[in-house]
Amino acid sequence: MSIERLMPPTTTTERETLRGYLDFQRATLALKCDGLDDEQLRQQASPPSTLSLLGLLRHMAEVERVWFRLVVNREDVPRVWSDTGDFQAAFNTDGATAHEAYAAWEREIEHARRIEATVDSLDNVYRYERRDMDISLRAVMMHMIGEYARHNGHADLLREAVDGTVGP
Fold first, then answer.
1. pTM to 2 decimals?
2. Residue 168: pLDDT above 80?
3. Taking residues 117-139, what's their average pLDDT?
C-alpha cells in the first residue's frame, strides 16, 4: 500500500486546517500498520491489554461511522462491529482480518469525507443522543483529531513491539 501523509496546511481556512490535521492523523495510523500481516497486526504489546493495531483499525472504523454517519448525517445504520453499540467490540480481533478491517476503515473515511464536505458550516450543531449532548461539526472534527492522535500514540508503541519500527 502506498501511503501519502501530507503535512497539514498552516496558512489556510479553519476548515481546511481541520481537514488537513484529520487526514494527517488518518495517514499516520495507516503508516503504523503498513506492511504488517494479520498476525502482526493482531499482536498485543502489553498484556493483559488486548490492544492491537488491528483492533485500532477496527475501532477507528467504528468511531468514523458513529460521528459522521450516525451523529452528523443521522443515518440509520448499525455499528460496524457491534449490534449493541459497544465500542470495545472492535478491539476483539478473534477471526478478524486486516483486509476486512482496512476495507471497513477506508469505507468509513470516505463516507466521513463526503458527509463533512456537504455541511455548509463548522457551526452546524447535531444531537448525539447516546451522550445526551449537542455538538458542532467543528467539535466533531476536533474530537476525531484527538481520537486519532491518542490512538496513534498507542500505535507507535504497538508497532515498535511488533518489529522495532519507530518514527512517522
1. 0.94
2. no
3. 96
CA distance 47 to 28: 24
Residue carrying C-alpha cell 477496527: 58
| Beta-carbon contacts of residue 19 (< 8 Å; ≥ 6 apart) | 116, 141
pLDDT tens for 58-95 read 999 999 999 999 999 999 999 999 888 787 888 899 99
Residues 161 and 47: their CA atoms lie apart, in Å, by 12
Distances (CA, A) of 163 to 41, 50, 57, 100, 121: 11, 18, 18, 22, 43
Q: pLDDT tens digit string along 18-31?
A: 999 999 999 999 99
Distance of CA 89 to the CA centre of its chain: 15
Of 87, 86, 92, 98, give the one whose Cα is nearest residue 32: 98
Total number of residues shown for the chain: 168
Q: Which of 161, 138, 157, 155 is nearest to 34 (CA)?
A: 155
Q: What is each CA distance from 125 to 63, 138, 161, in whole angstroms?
A: 18, 9, 41
